[in-house]
Amino acid sequence: MINTNDLTSDYIRDLNPKEVLDLGCGKGRISLMFLKKGSNVVGVDKKTNEICQKNFKFINSDILDFKIDKKYDLIIASLVLHFLEKSDAIRIIRDIKENTSENGYNLLLCLSKKDDFYKKGNFYPDLDEVKKIYSDWKIVKSTQDFTPIEEHGGLKPHRHNIVFVLAKK
After folding, report:
1. Dihedrals φ, ψ of 149, to 5°?
2. Cα–chain center distance at 11
3. All domains of the chain, ordered by start, with CATH?
4. 24, 94, 105, 87: which is closest to 58 by C-alpha?
């Protein structure tokens, strides 16, 4: 069983990117971790964000409409790609990979087909599928496992099956 907060902290502990893009940043849980390290962070989300720090830029946009216009040392897509149709998610991952600087990283946290809320047609990869997408990169860390039973958002008790991948270009 995995704790997403602990595992995320473990995956990023040794990373010190200068420029970070957090797609689907939500309330900024991961963005804040990098802001504390002194990174410049651009967060993109459909919902508003309340982070007010000089080295944080928030862009209110659907990630489907957002155009990456520069290279980043780290690009994050955490628990957002499952909202998209598989073809759209694959397109975004290609864009993420292309816009990662040399020796930069991608951090993906994805719900898998084993998730309690699996939705056919959307992007719910297993670990092998994500590794295949990143077969031309070095997989630094990866895992797939269930979270403990949780309740949030007014949903019945459930668990998620999450794929974590940290890949280096």
Report:
1. -60, 135
2. 12
3. 4-168 (3.40.50.150)
4. 24
Angle between helices 4-12 and 29-36 (to 10 degrees): 30
pLDDT tens figures, 36-69: 999 999 999 999 888 888 899 999 999 999 999 9
Q: How far, CA to CA in Å, does 1 sit from each of 31, 52, 59?
A: 24, 34, 34
Using alpha carbons, select from 76, 40, 78, 37 the residue that is nearest to residue 58.
40
Q: Which residues contact 110 (CB under 8 A, 6 or more apart)?
A: 77, 79, 81, 82, 123, 124, 125, 130, 162, 163, 165
Are 61 and 21 in contact by the 8 Å Cβ rule? The answer is no
pTM (predicted TM-score): 0.94
